[in-house]
Amino acid sequence: MIKKNIISLAGELSSGKGVVSKILMEELNYDVYRNGDYFRKLAQEKGMSVTEFNEYVKNHTEIDIQIENSAKEHAKNHNNFIIDARLGWYAVPESFKVYLKVDIDVAAKRAFENKDESKKQTERFNTIEEQKADMEKRFRLENERYYNVYGVRKDDMSNYDLVIDTTNLTPKQVSDIIKKEYLEWLKK
To answer: Residue 70's pLDDT is what?
Structure first.
């Protein structure tokens, strides 16, 4: 397989994908392609939370396939970019595949305290515990859907070139690890 100058950044909810991809984008002078933004936009258009839309997409696999194929199509005509997508590693196997893990309690706190209005429009919770329960449900729904539609498990760490636990790391530390390993991977 021919390697492309593409980093696919997957991972758990609130593991830091968005912030880390911004740092990498600046440091590598890459663009970023985000499936999550597209997913949230579609959820908002339907007047649904992201969890409700996850359930809806479960019965409308054509939407899921459309979303994942958008990353694959982008990679056909572009290089030097980061895919911020749960299945970016699957859609673009010639990319450097990274998975970010995080403790669920830390993730729930991060998500609950997130000030990003685009996320708050589709993810409103009164407590961190509600946030956590929703995140656990979304994780299960996504795993089931990806297995049923694509026959893959996003939480199978053998799918990735690099796995990082971000629980106790800053986004800069995470991006430094990714950049170092990515540049080594390109040389091999």
So the answer is: 83
Instruction: State the pLDDT at residue 115.
Output: 67
Q: What is the pLDDT of residue 183?
A: 96
How remote is the C-alpha of 92 from its chain's centroid? 13
Burial label for 99, CB within 10 Å (0-12, 13-18, 19+), is buried
